[in-house]
Amino acid sequence: MENEIFDPFEEPKDPRREGKKESLALTFWIFLIILFVFLLSYFNRSSSDNFPTENIISSPTSLLNSNVTNTPNSVNATETALPEIIIAPTSLPATEVPLEGLMVFSIMEAGYFHLFAYEPTSQLFTRLSIGEANDVDPRLSPDGTKIAFSSDRKGQSYIYVLNLLTGETLAVTNDIEHDSRPSWSSDGLWLTFERVEKNNVDIFIQPIDSSIPPIKITFDLHSDFSPTWHPDGKTIAFASSRTGNFDIWTINIEDLGNDGYLQQITSTPQDETNPIWSPSGDLLAWSSTHQGFQSIFISNPQIKEDFIQIIGRGNYTRWDPSGKNLITDIRSPQKDLIAIYKLNEQSQLINSFSPPGNIRGMDWGSNALPTNLPENMQTIADQELSTPWTNIENENMENDFGRYELS
Question: Per-residue pLDDT tens for 96-114?
Answer without folding.
Answer: 556 889 999 999 999 999 9
